[in-house]
Queue: 3 jobs
Job 1
Amino acid sequence: MSSSNRPANVEAFREAVVTRRSVRQFTEEPIPEAVLQDCLDMALLAPNSSNLQMWNFYRITSADKREQMAKACMSQKAAKTAAELIVCTGHTRNWRKHAKEILNQWPGDQPPKVVQQYYGGLTQFMYGMVPMDMLGFGARAKKGLRDSIGLVRPMMRTPNTEADMELWAAKSVALACENLMLALRAYGFDSCPMEGFDEQRVRKLCGYGRHEFTVMVIAAGRRHPKGIYHERMRFDRDRFIHEV
Ligand SMILES: Cc1cc2nc3c(=O)[nH]c(=O)nc-3n(C[C@H](O)[C@H](O)[C@H](O)COP(=O)(O)O)c2cc1C
């Protein structure tokens, strides 16, 4: 995988960013298989917390499941007309396995000591759930410990709870989702990220367990002429960009 430092093409990137819209209606044109796979590969290159890759992407392939998934997405037109539906999930438990695999698959010979300490030790403290967590004692103890250390030196205060872990995973998954959508745009295709869905039904259709959760469902395909509902609108940048 390339680690080249060559500059990316700003105008090509801007074109993808500016022309990406949430498209609510697609034509019947399929996305070529190679294009879709390339876009998914680019999604997997997104930055992610500690490189623990706590994501999954479920491409819905059977016609029957496609129909049910569109219904689970509240029968939104984007879902009903999409050439592809991709369910993007976060996982709050696979980090432990991934931490081990990072050490095993480290490029070159042995991972440096600092890397071994990071994945062998620090991640265990950061993301490991303490026993008895079902009653919330572990999470509270962990928070107390972090806050105590935080009195004397900078300390990461989260994650301590399952909800914290979901937030932790969702950040990285969302970045991968954006990569996927921009990659599709760069190929001339479009997308609609959706959080308007029935979590229980989406979960059942994909078949994942309780430590996995849906971040968004991405509808993708060729933009229909009626697929954009209105001009793009954003508030003034001064409202959001602060210098402190
Ligand atoms: C997490 C997330 C969830 C969204 N859910 C939906 C949705 O369920 N249905 C929909 O039509 N658009 C959905 N959108 C699209 C937003 O409405 C859209 O991004 C926003 O209006 C800005 O428009 P633009 O993407 O065309 O710039 C979602 C976007 C995000 C990031």
Note: The radius of gyration is 21 Å.
Job 2
Amino acid sequence: MTKNELKPEMEKMVREILKAETILLFPHIHMDGDCLGSSAAFCRGLRSLGKICWVVIEDEIPANLEFLNGDICTQDLELIQEPDICMAVDCAEIQRFINRKDLFLKGKLTMCIDHHSTAVPFTTYNYIDPTAAATGELVYKFLLALGVTLDKAMGEALYAAITTDTGNFQYSNTTRETHEIVANLYDLGIEHSKVSVEIYQNIRLEKLLMFNRSLESLQMYADGRIAIVSLKQQDLDDTGATVDEAEGIVEAIRSIGSVEIAVILKELKDKKVKVSLRAKNNFNVAKFAARFGGGGHVKAAGFIMHEPIEHCGEIISHELMTELFQETL
Ligand SMILES: [Mn+2]
């Protein structure tokens, strides 16, 4: 959909939101800065309009994002029995709600605001704009369209959303519009440096030990263009880190000069393996992930495998090398 085609959809959604009394927001599991920051800003904005609004979550908020909470998140699935609107934020797959699915579907209306290019609409109303760097950009537009007077807390939540999904304004998804929106957030008096310290300079030693451990598994293929690391449950047990703290490893190995495609394989508790891919220049990891039933963005995507983690590495390295070979033909 182009931005022009999306406009009438936003207008319809704004009309419904203004009519609603109770609205629940649903970020995806394994929350990141964008889904939680976007949800937090939206929730505050909707409350400022007098709506009863909560962000419904089912897993723990990562420590470096805890500052976004402040009485907007709840794990109570009974809080509102029949919400007027249930809205998926930064999440276009109902599978990423797991325990909240039933509650989500109880919404008299369902909506989705997202920017994943692989999003498949599953709600009554959908605002999916893959050209947006972050869902935070979309939420910013919705808040303005709703007539919300933005404040510092909303601004900092949106800043958190945008800085994290743009790799701190380094990724190619970052646009002039991204900077224009952020410039407007500055006018709200946001303390961007404080937000960055909260998000980026707030890790536990255990995380660094786990980084170290996973780097020991680093394998390079195709003349160093492909880098793969794995993280086993044992590594987590030994270092005391959590799987959520693996965020950043795959970006770290992508930063190696020769690497075009970086992959991390994470062994989950149920023995499934979560595969996360990052591309540097031209390779489309969303397309690659879709072949394995996953999805994401052109340069950041993922999927789940049901093989022992050692096999996963072999399969993926083989498939990636085949694709790279075909590309250079
Ligand atoms: Mn996002």
Note: Residues 34, 90, 115, 134-135, 165 surround manganese (II) ion (CB under 6 Å).
Job 3
Amino acid sequence: MAITDILDKQFIIFGGKGGVGKTTCAAATALALLPRKTIIVSTDPAHSLADCLEQEIGDRITRVEAGGNLYALEISAQNTYETFKQDHRREMLRLLESSAGIEHLTPRERDSLLSLPVPGADEVMGLKRLMDLMEEGTFEKYVLDTAPTGHALRLLSMPDIFDKWLNLFYKLRDKHRFHERAFSKPDRADEFLLSLKKSTAKLRNLLRSKTTEFVVVTAAERLVIQETKDLVSQLILFGIPVGHLIINKLFPDLSSDFARIRREQEHKLVKEAINTFSELEIIEVFLQSVEPQGIENLRRFASILYNHNDREAS
Ligand SMILES: Nc1ncnc2c1ncn2[C@@H]1O[C@H](COP(=O)(O)OP(=O)(O)OP(=O)(O)O)[C@@H](O)[C@H]1O
Ligand SMILES: [Mg+2]
């Protein structure tokens, strides 16, 4: 499978451990997809897309300056869910009250009921927003930049968990209906529940579609690779297509000009940091030839960290 196969997919998701280069790879991919009309979406609450693209983005579709046909969006799953709750307040209340078999609540009790967290609801709403965009068909390609592993796995597993909740509502409503009036007609809450079921099913299919790929980004460090293994097995377990692994930030061949240029850049940034953090003591630590793992390497690392005269790489 060539790396360029990724570019043939319609929906490309980037995930991996914190700081490995997910946002960078996602943004680079979005640019590689041009001139096809592309949107890069972030569901990472930390939203570093704006920093990466060096432009303000936020929770509405924004055209990327100098990006030709590239658009970006930073979705706040929580805000999306809040808006959804406001838009469907009546149906949601009806659903909650009838499932729990309680009626005639005071406005305050209703508010409390609505503010109870439903597992997965905000993640599902965030993904649903992306799916709605796909259905509108405004864009040809969709690139998703996720938050570090734990959060991304939560995001992807939520449609399944949310679906279990919806099934529970179905059962509770059936029971309620049986107790109340055995053969009452479906009401608005039933329609609402059904539409949520449909959206969730579509979302589950989308994540498992052949036109979707989850690209895993990692770094050549033992702990990162370990976490990557867990991520890949989880993705396979969920049935989400995964075919490529980017191992980022490898140390380059030092015979090139690379090290010199890199050092110059670093020097500049370190000088800036010394000025910016004038109240702090700055400790410079080199990228080590051996990963600081295991007692012996950690001792050596500690001596570098705590002995300012010895700042050389091991
Ligand atoms: N191959 C690379 N060479 C040099 N710097 C890189 C490389 N890849 C990424 N970076 C830099 O590393 C930093 C982290 O990258 P990025 O923000 O893409 O990671 P991330 O996985 O999205 O992080 P987070 O988990 O915080 O979202 C950025 O400053 C980025 O410019
Ligand atoms: Mg990121």
Note: Residues 18-24, 44, 48, 148, 248-249 surround adenosine-5'-triphosphate (ligand 1) (CB under 6 Å).
